[in-house]
Design goal:
8-stranded mixed β-sheet; alpha/beta; binds zinc ion; single chain; globular; 5-stranded mixed β-sheet
Amino acid sequence: MYEVYALKYAERDTTACQFFYREASHAPLTLHYYVWLILGGPHPVLVDTGFLEDDARARGMRGYVSPAAVVERAGVKPGDVPLALVTHLHYDHWAGHSLFPAAEFWIQAEEVAFWTGPWAAAPAFRQSANVTALAGLVTLNYAGRVRILHGDREVLPGIRVHRVGGHTAGLQIVSVQTARGTVVLASDASHFYRNVETRQPVQIVTSLPEMLEAFETIHALAGAERLIVAGHDPEVAARFTPLEPGIIRIA
Ligand SMILES: [Zn+2]
């Protein structure tokens, strides 16, 4: 049985109208930034890689610590992570890849195609990109460290990725069997609990129907236990078990 941890490495303030789809409210909204760690299998599995100091500075982050430092505090040396599931290629999920020098990165084909394709540089999308980190994807691929996936698949017995799209072209989420039930790492298929629980989209989107479908997929995977881990919600710490600052045990 696996154990799952949410590891927080930064936070940032925005407003509801800047974030939720067709939202009029200017109410303040705080995003927390996480990577996730799955332990208890033959080796650790990291989900997403966070970002480096450059994005922390440029994007007005508060309380930034290196995602590698949080992973190490959770008991895993960053150089000992052989596998990282990359939910999507936005800067806050991909730009920290160099922190994990032994990892193979598993990414959906449509996600790779999108960020090397005709719409990546459009203003609506490029604000979510770290171009240097995206260029590194090509280098890593030639080094044999990228596995390009086509849809849902098993990662290890009891761990699966599920391609949902919606927020980005090839967004994938992760389900993990634990002693408490199935944990669903929703990443940015549901930034906040409000998204998946009220079916309210976010403004950053490649396909609205796929985003809505993803909410249903999350509910179906989570079942009655509802062990859903939203991608950027401070409430993760309230719904699950904080062990020390920045380290939340999910199951
Ligand atoms: Zn994100």
